[in-house]
Amino acid sequence: MKFLEFEMDRDQVMDITPEVQEFVKQSGKKEGAVLVFSVGSTGAVTTLEYEPGLKKDLPRMMDRLAPYGEHYAHHETWNDDNGSSHVKSAVIGTSLIVPFSEERLVLGTWQQIVLINFDTRKRKRKVALHIL
Fold first, then answer.
1. I need a surface site. Which of 8, 81, 83, 113 has the fewest CB within 10 A?
2. Where would I find the H helices in the chain?
3. Which residues pair with 31 in a beta bridge?
4. Residue in 53, 58, 47 with CA at minimum distance from that of residue 15
5. CA distance 122 to 118
6. Nearest to 42, CA basis, from 63, 20, 11, 16
7. Nearest to 124 by CA among 38, 1, 18, 24
8. What is the reported pTM?
9. Structural domains in the chain?
10. What's the pLDDT score for residue 67?
């Protein structure tokens, strides 16, 4: 298992495909799958076409689903302001399994693995990688 750490801004979408690909290559395995897990409950991982428009569209659309500034019962529990962040993370998900063959991730031409910070502030995001 390997852990990666990234400093991320609020609503930042980051391409982590190169780091995951390097981990697969260093594993020495030719075929299998890699688990990608975002540690924490306000981050998420998924795949998408990593381009400027979608980097803006995804956080904007998630704000429609779980708007910042609304009342969330979570705020009463911890006296904080990131209830929307937890909802967004739960909807997108915190883990992903990606197959690989010949030491290469099996991804579409325009498909990248992305890490998203949905928290209401900058965060240090940790990602766990594990070969299955």
1. 81
2. 17-27, 52-65, 73-78, 83-92
3. 101
4. 47
5. 9
6. 11
7. 38
8. 0.95
9. 2-131 (2.60.120.460)
10. 95
State how beta strands 2-8 and 104-105 pair: unpaired
| The token pair that represents 86 in the structure block | 């937890």
Distances in Å between the Cα of 6 and the Cα atoms of 15, 75, 100, 125 are 11, 26, 24, 5
Per the listing, tokens 């990593």 go with 50
Please, what are the averages of pLDDT over each run of 10 residues along the chain (132 residues)?
98 98 98 99 98 95 94 91 96 99 98 98 98 98
pLDDT at 78: 87
The first and second tokens of residue 73, run together, are 């019962």
- Taking the alpha carbons at both ends of the chain, their separation in whole angstroms is 10
Q: Which residues pair with 33 in a beta bridge?
A: 99
In single-letter form, the type of residue at position 19 comes to: E
